[in-house]
Design brief:
About 60% of the residues lie in helices and about 10% in strands. It contains 4 helices and 2 strands, in the order αββααα. The chain has a two-stranded antiparallel ribbon. It starts with a helix and ends with a helix.
Length: about 110
């Protein structure tokens, strides 16, 4: 599929969308929509922010752990590890959400 077709498929109604946040109890939240409403737009924006923050954190981690960089304290390394784990969890959730919305190759062939 071309990039635009993948985007359209991922933003369209192929079933409930996994949202980039959880309930207060930590359970996944889903949205059933055509992918064009306020909550879909909000979810897209939050995913973009999460991935951007993860990218910035990765750059910081690479700089902090580069050969010759000033050593961090144990608390600073722990903070970095916790933030990296959070960023990885966010990125995996975004990937899972987007992956669920991409149609199977067989479905795409049938629709064509």
């Amino acid at each position: 599929m071309r990039r635009r077709e993948l985007y359209d498929a991922a933003s369209g109604g192929g079933g409930p969308r996994l949202l980039p946040w959880t309930s207060p109890e930590g359970k996944p939240c889903y949205l059933s929509s055509d992918g064009r409403g306020y909550l879909s737009t909000l979810a897209d924006s939050i995913e973009t922010v999460q991935l951007s923050m993860g990218q910035e954190l990765l750059e910081y981690a690479r700089d902090a752990t580069a050969h010759g960089a000033k050593a961090l304290s144990a608390n600073e390394y722990r903070w970095l590890a916790c933030r990296l784990a959070e960023a990885l969890a966010d990125a995996l959730r975004v990937a899972d959400s987007r992956g669920q919305r991409i149609p199977d190759q067989e479905e795409a062939a049938e629709d064509a």
